[in-house]
Design a protein that fits this description.
The chain is an alpha/beta fold. It is globular, with a radius of gyration of 15 Å.
Length: 163
C-alpha cells in the first residue's frame, strides 16, 4: 500500500488525472458529456475534477460520482465544487465520519442548481462498501448494488439514459 500512496498521493496524481481529462475533453468529450466516478482515493480526484477547471471553455467533467471518498479536505474541497457530484458513503466509514458526511450533504444540497449534488449515507456500511462488498452477507451486497444504482441514476439524470 505504501508504494501506491507514495506514487498516487493526490497532489502527485492530479497532473496525470487532469491531463487525461483535458485530452478526453478535447477529443471524445468535445461534443459529448463527460462524467467521472471514483472510489476511495479516486473520490478525491473526482472532487478535484469537479472544482471547475476548464479546457476550451468547458469543465473537465459535467458530473461526478464518488463512493466512500477519502483524503478529502472538508469543508474546503466540497465548497469549491462547481460541478454536481453524487456521494455514496457509509455511516461506519473509518475515513469519513457521519458528521463529515452530514457537513458534505449540507454544502452540496445548498449549491445552485448547476452544481447541486446529493449525498446518500448507507447504514451499517463501512469504507469500501461500494467496491468490496462481502457477498456472504445479503445486506452488504444490497448496499453495493444500491450504490451502483445510485451512480447509474445520477449519470442518467445528467446525461440522459442510453437507448
Amino acid at each position: 500500500m505504501l508504494p501506491f500512496i507514495t506514487y498516487n498521493w493526490p497532489s502527485r496524481a492530479w497532473p496525470r488525472v487532469k491531463g487525461f481529462f483535458e485530452q478526453l475533453r478535447k477529443e471524445e468529450g468535445s461534443s459529448l458529456p463527460v462524467g467521472a466516478a471514483g472510489f476511495c482515493w479516486g473520490g478525491k480526484q473526482v472532487i478535484l475534477l469537479a472544482h471547475g477547471d476548464t479546457i476550451d471553455g468547458r469543465p473537465l467533467i459535467d458530473a461526478g460520482f464518488t463512493g466512500h471518498p477519502s483524503l478529502l479536505s472538508i469543508p474546503g474541497d466540497i465548497e469549491k465544487l462547481k460541478v454536481p457530484v453524487s456521494f455514496a458513503m457509509g455511516d461506519h466509514d473509518a475515513y469519513l465520519s457521519v458528521e463529515q458526511a452530514e457537513n458534505i450533504k449540507k454544502i452540496v444540497e445548498a449549491k445552485e442548481e448547476s452544481a447541486r449534488g446529493e449525498v446518500v449515507v448507507y447504514p451499517q456500511a463501512g469504507h469500501g462498501f461500494c467496491v468490496r462488498a462481502d457477498h456472504k452477507f445479503a445486506e452488504s451486497t444490497r448496499q453495493a448494488d444500491e450504490a451502483a444504482e445510485q451512480c447509474v441514476k445520477w449519470f442518467n439524470a445528467h446525461f440522459g439514459s442510453a437507448s
